[in-house]
Amino acid sequence: MSASTNFQQLTYQLEALEAHAVSQITDASDAATLDHLRVILLGKKGELPAILSQMSKLSETERPLIGQRANLLKEEINSLLKKRLLLMKTAVMNERITREKLDVTAPSIGILSGHRHPLIKTTEDIVDIFCGLGYSVEEGPEIETDYYNFTALNIPQHHPARDMQDTFYLSESSLLRTHTSPVQIRHLEKNPPPTRIIAPGRVYRRDGVDATHSPVFHQVEVLAIDEGLDFSHLRGTVMAFLKQFFGDLPVRFRASYFPFTEPSAEVDVQWRDRWLEVMGCGMVDPAVLEGLGLDPERWSGFAAGLGVERFCMVRHGIDDIRRLYTSDLRFLQQF
């Protein structure tokens, strides 16, 4: 085949790819589809690089022409993807504005007497701080599947980490969640990054009841996924949160292990002249991102988790976790 014939063939392929890309991007219904199209069209093994791999067959005068045409097509596809994504976000926002209208003329129902439970108040304070840092609140079911509670978080069958989170099984495939991390997986399945969420909620583990343990307790999980996030962003977020919640207490990070983060750390605060562990954190393991179909070369993130009971007990000087569940008015009226 002559060089001129190869040139015409590549020109035709680029024109066909342009028409195909415009049609597919215009018909895309959600952000996940757009990201999938970006990979198919422009990724390392995508359609455009496949066409350009044939440029070796061209003459020295024809290669720059095809290269220039390909660059223009790449810019056009990126522009179409951005415009389509913006239209989607605008439509979602307009729908949300319409759906969440408030009737400001509705009469007040008055303020009920009583006290906020210290656990509820502590959770609200934690949520308020993270919302002030730009995070949104997500919730999920307390009855979970093995996949969301363990497998999707890089904890496969027979992994030793499962022994640390022994829980209550309702059937072979359903259980009471041991942490609120499954909310993060469910969120990322439906919402492509960038994302910043917190997931407060009740969790369950087969712990013996004593002054510091309960089979039912509350957690708040934190997740941030974006391009270029590193451990300094994690440390800065954790330090800002702890300073706002506890005040100017000394804080330290200790290397630790969690199956779904790498590297991982435990976070301690100095309280009553001793170091007290208050939360765990780490960079999201690339295996978790790959399991969700996300490119770990492009996306990175961090996660953190804390027990609401521990934060409540430290803040108020409570010596026994069981006091939070007895509904003793003599205890509750202090708050």
From TrEMBL:
GO CC terms of this entry: cytoplasm
Record has Magnesium as a keyword: yes
Reactions catalysed, as given in the entry: tRNA(Phe) + L-phenylalanine + ATP = L-phenylalanyl-tRNA(Phe) + AMP + diphosphate + H(+)
Keywords: Aminoacyl-tRNA synthetase, ATP-binding, Cytoplasm, Ligase, Magnesium, Metal-binding, Nucleotide-binding, Plastid, Protein biosynthesis
Record CDD domains: PheRS_alpha_core
The keyword Protein biosynthesis is assigned to this record: yes
GO terms assigned for molecular function: ATP binding; metal ion binding; phenylalanine-tRNA ligase activity; tRNA binding
Residue stretches making up the Aminoacyl-transfer RNA synthetases class-II family profile domain: 134-314
An example Gene Ontology biological process: phenylalanyl-tRNA aminoacylation
Documented EC number(s): 6.1.1.20
Source species, domain of life: Eukaryota
Subcellular location: Cytoplasm
Main EC class the enzyme belongs to: ligase
Cofactor(s), by name: Mg(2+)
Family assignment from sequence similarity: Belongs to the class-II aminoacyl-tRNA synthetase family. Phe-tRNA synthetase alpha subunit type 1 subfamily.
HAMAP family documented for this protein: Phe_tRNA_synth_alpha1
Quaternary structure note: Tetramer of two alpha and two beta subunits.
Protein name: Phenylalanine--tRNA ligase alpha subunit
Native source organism of the sequence: Paulinella micropora
Lineage, broadest ranks: Eukaryota, Sar, Rhizaria, Cercozoa, Imbricatea
Gene symbol of the encoding locus: pheS
